[in-house]
Amino acid sequence: MPDARLTTCRLPSPQASQSHQIEKIIGSNTTVYVYDGDQVIAEYDGTGGLLRKFIYGPGIDEPICMIDCTGESDVWYFYHLEGLGSVVALSNTSGSIVEKYTYDVFGKCDVIGWGDDETWDTGDDYDGSVSPVGNPYMFTARRYDDETGLYYRVN
Asked: Is residue 139 in a domain?
C-alpha cells in the first residue's frame, strides 16, 4: 500500500501567496487550493486541471454548492445545513439527497451515501468517514481534511 500521508503543505511561489493559493502534496498527488479571502473557491490538481469550485453565502462557513469538474460535464451538489451550521445533507440538481451526515458530540462525522444504483437502503449504501463525492465541508461547515482527520479554518 502506498504511503498516503501528508508530506508537504506549502505556498508554491511568491506570486501564489498574493493570490491566496496553497498547495498540498500527498505522495505523488498535488492539490492546489485557491482562496477568496478565507474561503476556498477552487481546487486544482498538480497539472492545473480544475477539480472543484465552491459557491458561498454571505456569511462565513456558509457553503451553498460544490461543483465537481472532473467529468465530461460539471456536477453540481447543494449543501443543506442545520441550526448549528453543520452540513446534514448534499443534494444534486434533481433535488435527490446523495449524501447524509451525522455527527457525534465532538464533531466526528459519519457519511452515508447512496450506492452504485443511486437508490437509498438497497444494501449497497456507503457508510464511512470520507465523502465519496469529495465534499470537504462537514461539522459547523468547516473544511475537513481526510488525511489528518482535522477541521480547518483560515485565521
From this structure: yes
What DSSP state is assigned to residue 151? E
State how far the Cα of 148 lies from the Cα of 110, in Å rounded to an integer: 16
Query: Amino acid identity, residue 36?
Result: D
Per the structure, the complete domain to which residue 138 belongs is given by: 77-146
- DSSP assignments along 71-132, one per residue: SSS-EEEEEEE-TTS-EEEEE-TTS-EEEEEEE-TT--EEEEE--TTS-TTSS--EEESS-T
Q: Is the pLDDT of residue 21 over 70?
A: yes
Kindly report, residue by residue over 84-125, the tens digit of the pLDDT: 889 999 999 999 999 999 998 888 888 888 777 777 777 777
Number of separate domains in the chain? 1
Q: Which residue pairs from 75-81 have beta carbons closer than 8 angstroms and sit at least 24 positions apart in sequence?
A: 75/133, 77/133, 77/135, 79/137, 79/141, 81/141
Instruction: Note whether residue 4 is domain-resident.
Output: no
Nearest to 66 by CA among 38, 89, 32, 37: 89
CA distances from 71 to 75, 76, 132, 133 (A): 8, 12, 15, 12
Please check whether residue 59 lies inside any domain of the structure.
Answer: no
